[in-house]
Design brief:
This protein has eleven helices and 20 strands. Strands 1, 10, 11, 14, 15, 16, 17, 18, 19 and 20 form a ten-stranded mixed β-sheet that branches. An eight-stranded parallel β-barrel has the order 2-3-4-5-6-7-8-9, surrounded by four helices. The chain is 30% helix and 25% strand. The protein has two domains: 217 residues, Alanine racemase (TIM Barrel, Alpha-Beta Barrel); 99 residues, Lyase, Ornithine Decarboxylase, Chain A, domain 1 (Beta Barrel). α7 links the parallel β6 and β7. It starts with 5 loop residues before the first strand and ends with a strand. α1 packs across α3 and α7 packs parallel to α8. 45% of the residues are buried. By secondary structure, it is of the alpha/beta class. The structure holds pyridoxal-5'-phosphate. The site of pyridoxal-5'-phosphate has 11 residues, from loops. Pyridoxal-5'-phosphate binds next to loops.
Length: 374
């Protein structure tokens, strides 16, 4: 086999995270898991296949091609595109049986036209902006828009009403509570306007799954927690989670260098003593961010070793220490466990000044995904 730096995707852990959420939210409520952005870097098809077996009810995608990829892979679960579409994307979405988010009349007309042309009835979910400030109609407009669909769009079914929380993961619950109160009133007004109860009212991302049980409604919509991470250090860890990904590579070169030897581009690191330097075939093109230059660390034969000098596009250097006995081919863990030590995705996020979401999304396609089930 040709060697690549690889991400071990722990499908068993992801499944257990899903099961833990199911236990918390109960069997009667639907669960949509966000598999957008290649399942936050973990592999959308593989995660969705497992989720289908694990009793997940819906999948959430960010783009029409993401949804089509799942259909082409034989995934049968309902799929919701979580954000608005351009008119020219409607036909592709509905012919792949993807439910869509809508929030304004022009877009809704385009959806109606596409469904009429296809001779089918498409499902739409009305997106309401209750305080995220991204997409969605105003709470005041929602009932009239829902009624507009009911009256003018015989090929559309208002299947859902939904909103999104920007700070449900933060310690202070007051903003989310106010948003939720607004959303509940919107759902009631929409139901009244169209004279029936909309099948799916939903608003709970991971932060709300963990901290706002009152907001679970008909369906929850977790993303990051599926992959084993709490959305924020302040979020209550009310459901146990296990990490969905480890990343490992191997030493590709080991050499003894003497004190004063410069390492990598820019000569930003010089050996402070005689030492052994190891090279790994992982760089910023793999998602091993350049901000790790002289700041990150890896695990080699059960020791924590610092990244030295600049991370290159395809390779990085590690100080193995003056007494190292490591050999070319030895395993190097970039994220995960080795010999009782571990480097978490949260540690990466902290060093890089970002969030775990971005860390796993940025693991590039060049890093082969290897799936374990148990
Ligand atoms: C509309 C919507 N719902 C749910 C999620 C899942 O959020 P999280 O990963 O924080 O659980 C996202 C992700 O950004 C989203 O955009």
């Amino acid at each position: 086999m040709l060697y690549q730096t690889h991400a071990q995707v722990h499908l068993g852990n992801i499944r257990r995270n899903i099961e833990a959420i199911r236990t918390a939210v109960g069997a009667d409520r639907k669960m949509l898991i966000a598999v957008k952005a290649n399942a936050y870097g973990h592999g959308a098809v593989e995660v969705s296949r497992m989720a289908q077996k694990a009793g997940v009810d819906w999948l959430g995608v960010a783009t029409v091609p993401e949804g089509m990829e799942l259909r082409q892979a034989g995934i049968r679960l309902p799929i919701l595109k979580l954000s608005p579409l351009f008119p020219e994307e409607m036909e592709a979405a509905f012919s792949s049986d993807i439910a869509i988010a809508v929030c304004e009349r022009g877009n809704i007309r385009a959806a109606q036209d596409a469904c009429k042309a296809l001779g089918l009835r498409g499902n739409v979910h009305l997106k309401v902006d209750t305080g995220m400030g991204r997409v969605g109609c105003t709470p005041e407009d929602a009932p009239a828009i829902a009624l507009f669909i009911e009256k003018n769009c015989p090929n559309l079914n208002v299947q859902g009403v939904f909103t999104h929380f920007p700070v449900s993961d933060e310690g202070d619950p007051s903003y989310t509570r106010a948003q939720f109160a607004r959303f509940k009133a919107v759902v009631e007004a929409v139901n009244e306007a169209i004279g029936r109860r909309v099948e799916l009212a939903h608003c709970s991302n991971s932060g709300a799954v963990l901290a706002h049980p009152e907001a679970w409604l008909d369906m929850v919509r977790p993303g990051i927690m599926i992959y084993g991470h709490y959305p924020d250090a302040e979020t209550p860890q009310s459901i146990p989670l296990q990490p969905g990904m480890s990343i490992a590579t191997r030493l590709s070169c080991v050499k003894k260098v003497s004190k004063g030897t410069d390492i990598s581009y820019g000569r930003t690191w010089s050996a402070p003593r005689d030492t052994w330097v190891g090279t790994i075939p992982a760089g910023y093109a793999d998602g091993f961010n350049r901000l790790f230059s002289s700041r990150g660390r890896v695990l080699v034969n059960g020791r924590s070793c610092p990244i030295i000098g600049r991370v290159c596009m395809d390779q990085s250097m590690v100080d193995l220490g003056p007494d190292a006995q490591d050999k070319v081919g030895d395993q190097v863990v970039l994220m995960g466990e080795q010999g009782g030590l571990s480097i978490s995705c949260e540690e990466w996020a902290k060093v890089l000044g970002t969030i775990t979401y971005e860390v796993t999304c940025q693991i590039s396609p060049r890093v082969s995904r290897v799936y374990d089930e148990d």
